[in-house]
Amino acid sequence: MIAVIFDMDGVLVDNAHFHERAFAEYFSKFGTKLAPEMFGRGNDELMAELFPNESKERHRELAAGKEAYYRQIYEPHIEPVAGLVELLRELKTDDSIRIAVGSSAPVENIDFVLDKLQIRNYFDIVVVAAMVQRAKPAPDIYLKAAELLNVKPETCLVFEDALAGISAARSAGMKIVGIATSLPKERLTETDRIIDDFTEITVAEIKQLTD
């Protein structure tokens, strides 16, 4: 038994530009700006770093406001990364494969993507940050997915686009396919394979990577 675990932002959807736009527009009055290594990290950690003098309650308010604005501007444009639905459909027909989402994104954003794209039924489980102690780049989310799927970490393959997520999957002892949506390919070298989208990989190749 093997498992294929998908990050959400930048993997199921190519949405980095909309997050960047939402962040820039929503937080423009604060003069804040995200560095590339900040993408893929949980909001709690990110808000604490960007607004160290604000309370945790205020951090939650700021993050929730930005995420609601992101969903508003992204909804008219949302679509799956090329080849995603076809790959999910093929994975689902193989009884030797389990499928999961493992994301540090707010659950409201995960629900938004899964339901708008109508792909929730393909996943055996969805692991969110609230289910673990530490968000990415800690390996907790991916290890939790393996635990819930009852598979060994070394038999898991993770699709990731962000440096924090790649570090998380590597620390979990899992194979990684980097998808070059949010970052250029030269930034994704700490992976086992790099693709532009899901049309470039097959179920057979996924099985080879997890052998």
- N-to-C span: 11 Å
Chain-averaged pLDDT = 93
| Name of the CATH superfamily of the largest domain | HAD superfamily/HAD-like
Tally of strands = 6
The total domain count is 2
Structural class, from helix and strand content?
Answer: alpha/beta
**Strand-residue fraction?**
5-15%
* Rg, Cα atoms, Å: 16 Å
Just give the CATH class of the largest domain: Alpha Beta
Number of separate helices: 8
Identify the overall geometry.
globular
- Which H/E pattern describes the elements? EHHHHEHEHEHEEH
Sheet with most strands: 6 strands, parallel
According to CATH, the fold-level topology of the largest domain is Rossmann fold
Give the second-level CATH assignment, the architecture of the largest domain.
Answer: 3-Layer(aba) Sandwich
Q: Residue share in helices?
A: 25-40%
Lateral arrangement of strands in the main beta sheet: 3-2-1-4-5-6
Unreliable runs: none
Question: What do these coordinates show?
Answer:
There is one protein chain. With 211 residues, the chain is of the alpha/beta class. The chain has two domains: 2-13 and 79-209, 3-Layer(aba) Sandwich (Rossmann fold); 16-76. The protein has eight helices and six strands; from the N terminus they run βααααβαβαβαββα. It has helices at residues 16-26, 43-50, 56-74, 84-92, 107-116, 140-149, 163-171, 203-209, and strands spanning 2-6, 97-103, 125-128, 156-160, 175-179, 193-195. Strands 3-2-1-4-5-6 form a six-stranded parallel sheet, with helices on both faces. α1 (16-26) packs across α3 and α2 crosses α3 (56-74). The longest helix is centred in the first third of the chain and has 19 residues, at 56-74. It is globular, with a radius of gyration of 16 Å. The N and C termini lie close together (11 Å). The model has no long low-confidence stretch (mean pLDDT 93).
